[in-house]
Amino acid sequence: MAETPEPSIYEKAFAKSDVTDAILVVEEKKLHVNKALLSCHSDYFKTLFNSDFKEKSMEEIPIEDVKLEDFATVLSLVNPIRIEPTNERIAELLKVADRFLLPSAKRQLELFLMTSTHYSHEKIEWADMYNLDELLKHTLNKFPNKNAFFFLPSSFSQLKEKTKATIFDRFLVVQRKEDPRANHRSDRGKRPGFG
């Protein structure tokens, strides 16, 4: 007689309980969730559970094109039992949080990234891609001097205009700290009472 395999940490975090009322199936594994909780945190799930889609009446709702570990980790960030994100999976976790419209989970991932050991250029690219404004500011505030800005990769030309403006603003702040004369020069030509 074959033994039943031990449930993974992902299945344990989403075990059936007296507060779960829906089952999401990812990679043939069942995750028991609370519809109201997920609907509160995600417009995706609010629509899925409350609109006139076929999934609304299904006992088990399949979730396609996502890895169990990524999906469960992201969902856990808005659930009572939390699975800690890892540096190795952060890019995938951000995609999942974005795809399933989970701003609370995305914020948790942003806070995680602020203390992670990822390179600054990676953090800036993720901040740009997923609109993580606090991560962008936090990362730029770590640049020790204006020379650090010159090591940004050439792919930065692909960033959104808003991100480029934030980088440039921070560069000017750092430059003014390094060269106080820049402040004096920028005051030249101003008429009294203006600016």
UniProtKB/TrEMBL annotation:
For this protein, the record's InterPro entries field holds: BTB/POZ_dom, SKP1/BTB/POZ_sf
Q: Please state what the protein is called.
A: BTB domain-containing protein
- Membrane-crossing ranges are none
Taxonomic placement? Eukaryota, Metazoa, Ecdysozoa, Nematoda, Chromadorea
Q: Which residues form the BTB domain?
A: 20-87
List the PROSITE patterns.
BTB
